[in-house]
Amino acid sequence: MRLDKFLKISRIIKRRTVAKEVADQGRVQINGQVAKSSSTVKVEDEIKITFGNRMMVIKVKQLQESTKKEDAAKMYELIGEEIIEK
């Protein structure tokens, strides 16, 4: 599954266009490698996302083509979240 689609379906980022912009700006890493919006996401991948002054690390648990709001959180596990001091 494409990275931008995963971020939208899992509701980590609300819109796919925003997910695409974030990824293409180099603010997303998959398993330590900078990822583009078209990068492929697989189960057990570790994704690190930087939002302004916050960094979020998640592990992909499952991939679904569509999901309900209450099931979206089952697609990933939050490993860590931290505030980045500037």
TrEMBL record:
Highest taxon listed in the record's lineage: Bacteria
Record note on quaternary structure: Associates with stalled 50S ribosomal subunits. Binds to RqcH, 23S rRNA and the P-site tRNA. Does not require RqcH for association with 50S subunits.
Name of the protein in question: RQC P-site tRNA stabilizing factor
Protein's gene: rqcP
Keywords from the UniProt entry: Protein biosynthesis, RNA-binding, rRNA-binding, Stress response, tRNA-binding
Keyword Protein biosynthesis: yes
InterPro entries, per the entry: RqcP, S4_RNA-bd, S4_RNA-bd_sf
Residue ranges occupied by any RNA-binding S4 domain in the UniProt entry: 1-63
Role description: Key component of the ribosome quality control system (RQC), a ribosome-associated complex that mediates the extraction of incompletely synthesized nascent chains from stalled ribosomes and their subsequent degradation. RqcH recruits Ala-charged tRNA, and with RqcP directs the elongation of stalled nascent chains on 50S ribosomal subunits, leading to non-templated C-terminal alanine extensions (Ala tail). The Ala tail promotes nascent chain degradation. RqcP is associated with the translocation-like movement of the peptidyl-tRNA from the A-site into the P-site.
Naturally occurring in which organism (per UniProt): Facklamia miroungae
GO biological process: rescue of stalled ribosome
Family named by the database record: Belongs to the RqcP family.
GO molecular function: ribosomal large subunit binding; rRNA binding; tRNA binding
